[in-house]
Amino acid sequence: MFNTLKPQAPDKILALMGQFKADPRPGKIDLGVGVYKDADGHTPVMRAIKAAEQQLWQSETTKTYTALAGEPAFHAAMAGMVLGADYPKDRVSALATVGGTGACRQGFELARLANPGCTIWVSDPTWPNHLSILAFMKQDYKTYRYFDNATRSVSFDAMLGDLAAVKAGDVVLLHGCCHNPTGANLTLEQWSAVADLLAAKGAVPMIDLAYQGFGDGLEADAAGTRLIASRLPEVIIAASCSKNFGIYRERTGILLVLSDAAARDVTQGTLAYLNRQTYSFAPDHGARLVTMVLTDPALRADWEAELEEVRGGMLGLREQLAAELRQLSNSDRFDFVAQHRGMFSRIGATAEQVEKMRVDDAIYMVGDSRLNIAGLNTKSVPVLARAIIAAGV
Q1: Looking at 96, 243, 303, 387, which residue is catalytic?
Q2: Any catalytic annotation for residue 243?
Q3: How far is CA 202 from CA 78, 162, 210, 247, in A?
Q4: CA dist., res. 252 & res. 241, Å (int)
Q5: What is the four-CA torsion angle of 255, 260, 265, 266, rounded to 10 degrees?
Q6: Which residues make Cβ contacts (< 8 Å) with residue 279, sequence separation at least 6?
Q7: In what helix (H) or strand (E) does residue 392 lie, and over which residues does it extend?
Q8: Looking at residue 156, what is its pLDDT?
Q9: Which of 51, 77, 210, 385 is catalytic?
């Protein structure tokens, strides 16, 4: 039977990783994969996570299964971080998932169970795996315009124009902060306008919150999500712990669902059912570490301090790159780099220009010119700036 299988299209980012590893040039720069790296090109274990692991190693007495939907303590800790300490507990259902990707997948599955005829609306552009998952599920989806390639900013009027076509029961996928791949975020006023539109249409927002703490800080990065949660009766939130806790390989995420209180128990049961049908019990190690960090005052303070160091470092690299490009181009056309937030920016290079930078300068970025700011350091920023100008961007 296996001779009937057809080759699958390779993931472009994973293929880029392979090219980078095979490149023998000593000065090569990896700006493709979406992983945080420090100035030495290393992805460290955060101090609070390491301390929590040491505590857990001393205290843990069993590796038996946890609850099917994950531990309630993890649910509460993450709901508090995402929605605020005073979140409406009687409206929130929660599911521990296999990373943020698992949360997205289970969110899509939940939407389809609740409304089999729904359409998922996705920003253009978006994280490629959103579209890949939806296509694999054979789930109907449409895109809405989001990014203006000329100004490198949110094309908000076009976005609202496209979303005017959503129907009651449709799901609109939004990036909570640090939009991937563009780095261009909605303002709080724009979030409010989106909330008004979705409420009027009877559509359900689904927020992918993968980078809380990487943009303007933990609280500011959750502001749009909290606004939506306060204004809409039903909300789906897929949150990842990979980046802000640095536990990529532990595959730790959560799906939070807000409904009216009367529907909460059925929704919670449905979430547990979805886990049972896919991977049964979610991984617990990463979730337990996150719970420990968020509920222990000393661990949380150290984690927040290190997260601020990470965020500040990325902002510094953005400002340095924008300044270098301003000087080399004798223009302000690259100032958007300093205005974007998170790990990514799309700099507006063509696929040919991206390839030229790879061939000439050993600089690796995704073909749509998305670059990972966290893949830079103060020494490689000038190298990248010169390459961008030399490529004619």
Answers
A1: 243
A2: yes
A3: 27, 15, 25, 36
A4: 6
A5: -80
A6: 98, 102
A7: none
A8: 98
A9: 210
- How many residues does the structure list for the chain? 393
Q: Quick check: 210 and 240 in contact, CB under 8 A?
A: yes
Q: Are 108 and 158 in contact (CB under 8 A)?
A: no
- Which element (helix H / strand E) includes 121? strand 120-124
- Phi, psi (5° rounding) for residue 372? -90, 105
| Tokens 């991984």 sit on residue | 283
- Under 8 Å between Cβ of 247 and 286: yes
DSSP state of 256: E
Annotate 330-372 with DSSP letters as a single string. TSSTTTHHHH--SSEEE----HHHHHHHHHHH-EE--TT-EEE
- Could you tell me which residues come within 8 angstroms of residue 192 by beta carbon, excluding any fewer than 6 positions away? 227, 231
At 219-228, the pLDDT tens digits run 999 999 999 9
The residue from 69, 94, 111, 127 that is catalytic is 127
Which residues of the chain fall below pLDDT 70?
Answer: none
Reading the block at residue 298, the tokens are 């000393």
- DSSP lists the bridge partners of residue 30 as 364
DSSP secondary structure code for residue 86 in this structure: T
Active site residue 210: yes
